[in-house]
Amino acid sequence: MLTIASYNIHKGIGSDGRLMPQRIFDVLDEIGADVALLQEADSRFGVRMSVLPAQMLAARGWTAAPLGEQHKALGWHGNAVLVRGAARLTYSHRIILPSLEPRGAVLADVTYGNQALRLVGAHLDLSGLWRARQTRAIIDAVARAPGNLPELVMGDFNEWRTGGAALTALARQWREIALPASFPARLPLGRLDRAFVNRALSIADAQVHVTALSRVASDHLPLWVRLGA
Fold first, then answer.
1. Whose CA is closest to 92, among 109, 79, 75?
2. Dihedral angle sign, alpha carbons of residues 10, 209, 228, 87
3. Under a CB-based contact definition with an 8 Å cutoff, are residues 90 and 109 in contact?
4. Mean pLDDT calculated for residue range 191-218
5. Residue 9 burial by CB count (10 A; 0-12/13-18/19+): exposed, middle or buried?
């Protein structure tokens, strides 16, 4: 079964204020993730640079989708897609979002054995008005993407409320997977990190990953989805 994680890694800085990117890889190993959709994987301003060293990525067996808008960046506006093991990337694309602050989303098609899946990773705006516009842009981008694969949309949607316009639009398009709060990592109160899935896709399990390590590795807890056979 394919396990996909979504993780706002807070630029490698843990809830203890320490920059220790190796802990991000350790958390992904705890999950047993085959694919990781990361948010805040690059520095935000100026020359964007990956917060995960290339040699560390290689040593842990991860390959990054070619999404970086600058040579040293891992992703698009901090959104990165990593695969390892039997998971294979077949297509990846940057999604340009309307925004006041630097924001983006990414799309990637992945195969795993006889399974094929379209993944979207996103980190939306702090403003509800802009989140609604960004959600529409994501839905339109997925509709335009080549092929017809089942979709899984994951990320940090920055929405504390239920019933906001962005979440309502996503829930009309996909089925939301019920998951508990993930932020802040030490004492989760907000369901900022969410997952939405094609209604026909079989889900074996889905969780917010709570361990002693995940509580300290970032200010968000990661979530993961495991696909059924």
1. 109
2. positive
3. yes
4. 96
5. buried
